[in-house]
């Protein structure tokens, strides 16, 4: 991605091509249910208020939370994923605001949220793009709002605790960081971190 503006059109196209290929081959994250780690956050009372699922994909996490009575929105750059998510929402009788959009430009949504959840989006970004993503998240969070990120702990896309703190600098506070499991169509899944950060403004 060198030679491109961070978060610019060329980078977007690279990411879009990656996800198009993944969907065509059968996306490993398409487990047809919410991630257990997200369910556990809900059960612990850690997801509240108006919620945004950033990089929602097929939006199973968003649909689960909407079924619990929360006001939920979802955004993803892949239109086929949003189309299927909308169909699932209609079929389940759920009202969820699902939009095609860019996670690096969340200010364009024109509103703020109390909670943002992220299931395996953070580790997609290159290190140089992570501060831009953090700023985008901040533009969509109310002061005191929380960002919950589930991302890879091992492998080429892993993000260390030190790298997380580098990406989320001024205005952010890391509230918790714990080891967990990311569910995939492969029963073994992947080793993951679950981070909770607060936007202090």
Strand order of the largest sheet: 3-2-1-4-5-7-6
The biggest sheet amounts to:
7 strands, mixed
Helicity, as a percent range: 25-40%
Low-confidence spans: 1-7
Give the number of helices. 6
| Global shape | globular
CATH fold title = Rossmann fold
What is the total tally of β strands? 7
Q: Return the string of H and E elements.
A: HHEHEHEEHEHEE
Number of domains: 1
Percent range for β-strand residues: 25-35%
Superfamily (CATH H level) name: Vaccinia Virus protein VP39
CATH class: Alpha Beta
Structural class: alpha/beta
Question: Which key features would you list for this structure?
Answer:
201 residues; alpha/beta; Rossmann fold; 7-stranded mixed β-sheet; 6 helices; 26% strand; globular; disordered N terminus
Please describe the topology of this protein:
Blueprint: H1 9-25, H2 36-43, E1 51-54, H3 60-67, E2 72-76, H4 79-91, E3 97-100, E4 113-119, H5 130-139, E5 141-152, H6 161-167, E6 172-182, E7 190-199
Parallel strand pairs: 1-2, 1-4, 2-3, 4-5
Antiparallel strand pairs: 5-7, 6-7
Structure, described:
Helices cover 31% and strands 26% of the residues. With 201 residues, the protein is an alpha/beta fold. The protein has one domain: Rossmann fold. A seven-stranded mixed sheet has the order 3-2-1-4-5-7-6. Helix 5 (130-139) links the parallel strand 4 and strand 5. The relative contact order is 0.15.
Give a quick precis of the structure.
This protein has 201 residues and is an alpha/beta fold. Helices cover 31% and strands 26% of the residues. The chain is globular.
């Amino acid at each position: 991605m060198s030679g491109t503006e961070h978060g610019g059109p060329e980078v977007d196209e690279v990411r879009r091509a990656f996800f198009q290929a993944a969907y065509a081959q059968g996306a490993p994250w398409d487990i047809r249910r919410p991630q257990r780690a997200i369910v556990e956050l809900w059960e612990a009372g850690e997801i509240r208020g108006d919620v945004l699922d950033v990089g929602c994909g097929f939006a199973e996490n968003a649909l689960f939370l909407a079924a619990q009575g929360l006001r939920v929105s979802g955004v993803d750059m892949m239109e086929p994923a949003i189309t299927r998510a909308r169909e699932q929402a209609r079929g389940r009788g759920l009202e969820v605001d699902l939009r095609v959009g860019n996670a690096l430009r969340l200010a364009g949504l024109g509103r703020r949220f109390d909670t943002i959840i992220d299931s395996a989006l953070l580790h997609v970004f290159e290190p140089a793009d992570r501060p831009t993503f953090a700023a985008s998240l901040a533009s969509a969070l109310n002061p005191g709002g929380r960002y919950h990120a589930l991302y890879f702990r091992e492998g080429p896309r892993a993000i260390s605790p030190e790298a997380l703190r580098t990406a989320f600098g001024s205005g952010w506070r890391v509230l918790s960081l714990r080891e967990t499991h990311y569910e995939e169509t492969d029963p073994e899944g992947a080793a993951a971190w679950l981070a909770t950060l607060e936007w202090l403004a």
